[in-house]
Amino acid sequence: MDERLRTTSATLHVREMALADCPRVAEIRVRGWQTAYKGLMPQAYLDGLDPAEDVARLRARFEGAGEGVVSLVAEWDGDVVGWACHGPYRDGEVRTAEAELYAIYVDPDRLASGVGRALLRESVARCTAAGHGRMLLWVLRENVSARRFYEKAGFAPDGAEEPFEVDGVEVPEVRYARVLGGS
Predict the structure, then answer these.
(1) 12-63 pLDDT, tens digit each
(2) Are β-strands 70-76 and 79-91 bridged in parallel, bridged antiparallel, or unpaired?
(3) Of residues 154, 96, 79, 83, the one with CA closest to residue 124
């Protein structure tokens, strides 16, 4: 599947990620954390994130991705500006028949430009085509803008919560779900 969106003179294109995209995706992921989680996580932790250190971790995960794990990137006129990753839902160490959005990040300079919507729409379409009945994701409870983004895309909290610890500080997450197929 391929997602194209024409905006003024720019074209947004969603495609599968390649190993060569890892450095740019690491930069987007780190800048995304530093922007989205400011005030929600310890600032010292966010300040210490380094894209160069994240590249090796990202490459290893990309190369060792299990069956059904898909990484997508969004290109804006040829420049990678967003990344999403989805696959089977992880219930502890067990993968289930449901889908999970593991990550979605957009270059902070491209927020509210349609990049995140295009990535999420493509992930949902691919999970639907793969036969998953539901798609789940975890979002920081206090990340109001992300929660609003997911709700506009048809996701809703399902009541599950789980603690997430960052530098000794608990940052609670809530689980969102969306029924796939015909929604």
Answers:
(1) 899 999 999 999 999 999 999 999 999 999 999 999 999 999 999 999 888 8
(2) antiparallel
(3) 154
Helices (H), ranges, the chain: 22-36, 43-48, 51-63, 115-129, 144-152
**pLDDT band, very low/low/confident/very high, at 93 (cuts 50, 70, 90):** low
φ, ψ for residue 98, nearest 5 deg: -85, 160
Beta carbons of 83 and 25 less than 8 angstroms apart: yes
Cα diameter, the chain: 46
Please, how many CA atoms are within 13 Å of residue 125, restricted to the half-sphere of its CB? 12
Reduced to 3 states (helix: H, G, I; strand: E, B; else coil), residue 79 is strand
Residue 68 has pLDDT above 60, yes or no: yes
- Cβ density class 113-142: b for 16+ within 10 Å, e for less: bbbbbbbbbbbbebbbeeebebbbbbbbbe
